[in-house]
Amino acid sequence: MKYNCDIISDLLPLYIDNACTSSSAQAVEEHLAECSVCTKLYEDMKNSENVLDSEIKKERDEVLTKQSKYFKRRSVLAGSIIGGIFSIPILVCLIVNLASGAGLSWFFIVLTAMFIPASLTVVPLMIPQNKALCTLGAFTASLLTLLGVCCIYSGGSWFAVAASSVVFGLTIVFAPFIVQAKPIAKLLKNNKGLAVVSAYTLMYVIMMISIGISSGSDSFFDYAAAYSIPVLAYMWTMFAVLRFVKLNRQLKAAICVFVSSLFFFFGDTMVNLFLGNGFILPGSPFEDVMSAADVLANRFNWVVLIFGTILSAVLAAVGIYENKKNKK
Prior knowledge:
By secondary structure, this protein is mainly α. Among the domains are: 64-155; 247-328. Helix content is 82%, strand content 0%. It contains 12 helices and no strands. It has helices at 5-16, 22-32, 36-99, 107-126, 131-154, 159-178, 182-188, 192-215, 220-244, 249-265, 267-274, 292-327. The longest helix has 64 residues, at 36-99. The two termini are 61 Å apart. The mean pLDDT is 81.
């Protein structure tokens, strides 16, 4: 044999851990091919290494499981304590309300008001998974419950308007984050952007319908549709360009800038068209027969259109140049 067994036995731990040089590994392999004693030693060491790794992994998993259970118990305990603290003012209000002979007039308002801080503190401590999503849901439900109770005790009819407005505002802020939550993201897959824009549209329409019904005005829906449809159309156009048009960033930006300038320029035209006033184009920037405010508005519209057209042309030229450059 070319190598001494003592040398090989010293190299075996390094060889098993892949920590020796290529020449040392080659020497070990050549020796193992010739020496049955060292081969047996190698197999024993390798088996013991595998057993040790298995034991370490098992102990690690046990430690993580114990720590997870420990923190869950602590979270539940903390949530219970906080919930108990919130119950103190509720009980005090109940006693005072009954002792004063007022019945339960404002007790339910206090009760539902306590649901809001509880949803932001107790819920994330008690829920093991999807904490942010559950906390947001609990917060929204508690806020709507408070609005409903206040509406009932005030004898008002404004709940639908307030609730739809609150939900619309929360949707604007939190919808992009909600679609990223694991269960929602798994369901939507590659349609997250479409879901966000659809949620914006749906909540806005519900809010406007609630306001229209509450106002009792016959002309509300006509004006709401005239001013809302162009805005919603602009939002969906921007989304379609950014999501579905297969162009580089510069060309997409050129389309977005040009479309934005067109929507701004023809904004009043679209409103008048939906109101049944006919197709009225913006006036000339040099026309001064109108009021000073109308002249200023017309000139501003033309400035936006001209500047937007020039900027979109520049971006389009850059985008075309980048396409040609990439093809080369």
